[in-house]
Design goal:
With 342 residues, the protein is an alpha/beta fold.
Length: 342
């Protein structure tokens, strides 16, 4: 029997990503852009189907994949808690599944099992450090109160989104460490600037002592900023994302606390799947379900560097550097934005 094909010479794997976002939503379109960059580096055939934040559309896209020429891998998210439905849909399919950005909750897994258990073709997951990010944002925002009594208003995302739930849990952990700061209310801004603006128009007058605003993304923060400006309120803001707008806001001090880095998560997942396709199973390099500590607090200087790098058509990052193919002794994946901040 002839020797096995060397990992680096294996055929290019095909991957479909069920993107849950809108096809004109900056975060998810940028997320796709970096995945396409990684796919080019890794020799992956990548197809992206946008779900437009509509459960029916997401399921339609999934069935389209199931009815067509099967890809080697399907990447899905647990947005709106659709993960179990997707796993049942692809049960028995030769397509291998991978959860990205948000995986099944503990409650869901208690019912249907985890990856590589009941659903054998569900290989694993990669999620960002959302809880830690929420905590770090809360901690640094609270520090702006300088130990004095203060009130905080929080704007979370969509209720049925694991990322939103985890970031808010991180904020609560920070609040538990700071008894001098009181959370007056946490509302679901649903990631939308206009909704957060309308909520802030009514909430800010009701809470005249609020000085701290924690926002689970950048769009909602900008909605609150607009409402606060109309009411002549000077507030401190913490936000999360990597848009040019929010990076500029961090540079000019409009937003004083900013977490960023998860925009590379999809690209990191492709590194793991590329290795898997070449016989280098990521389970041996960190486990089947992994958390990437991509999200971090960035200062003004780092925001300037990111703004400059992300503003280019090619961010100048060869994703092969994170692969076990190029690093045979790799024990744990370390896909990060550190190289973009050099």
């Amino acid at each position: 029997m002839c020797c096995a094909l060397a990992p680096a010479q294996s055929p290019a794997p095909s991957v479909v990503f069920l993107n849950p976002g809108y096809s004109n939503e900056p975060f998810w379109t940028d997320y796709t852009l970096y995945m396409q960059d990684a796919a080019g580096d890794l020799g992956i055939e990548l197809k992206v189907l946008y779900g437009e934040r509509d459960p029916a559309r997401m399921l339609h896209n999934a069935r389209q994949v199931l009815d067509g020429l099967p890809p080697d891998y399907l990447i899905f998210t647990n947005e709106l808690f659709l993960g179990p439905v997707l796993l049942r849909l692809f049960e028995g399919s030769p397509i291998r599944l991978f959860a990205l950005h948000s995986t099944l909750t503990d409650e869901q897994q208690a019912l249907i099992g985890g990856s590589r258990e009941r659903h054998r073709n569900w290989l694993g997951s990669l999620v960002p450090n959302d809880e830690e990010a929420g905590y770090l944002m809360g901690r640094d925002l609270i520090a702006l109160s300088r130990g004095q009594p203060a009130e905080l208003l929080a704007f979370s995302g969509v209720k049925q989104t694991p990322s939103s739930i985890l970031r808010l849990a991180g904020l609560q952990r920070a609040l538990n460490e700071a008894p001098h700061v009181r959370l007056v209310q946490a509302v679901q801004g649903e990631w939308q600037e206009q909704r957060a603006y309308e909520q802030a128009l009514s909430l800010l007058p009701r809470h005249p002592e609020v000085s701290l605003i924690w926002s689970a993304n950048d769009a909602m923060a900008f909605g609150v900023i607009r409402a606060a400006a109309e009411q002549n309120r000077a507030l401190h803001y913490a936000a999360l994302n990597n848009s040019a707008r929010v990076l500029q806001a961090r540079i000019n001090g409009q937003i004083e606390v900013l977490a960023s880095g998860h925009f590379l998560l999809g690209a990191c997942a492709l590194v793991m799947l590329s290795d898997h396709a070449r016989g280098l199973d990521f389970v041996e390099r960190g486990g089947k379900d992994q958390e990437a500590r991509l999200l971090r607090i960035i200062d003004r200087e780092q925001a300037q560097k990111l703004l400059k790098r992300l503003g280019k058509s090619d961010i100048g990052l060869d994703f092969r550097r994170f692969s076990a193919v190029t690093q045979p002794r790799l024990q744990h994946y370390d896909c990060s934005i550190a190289a973009l901040l050099d």
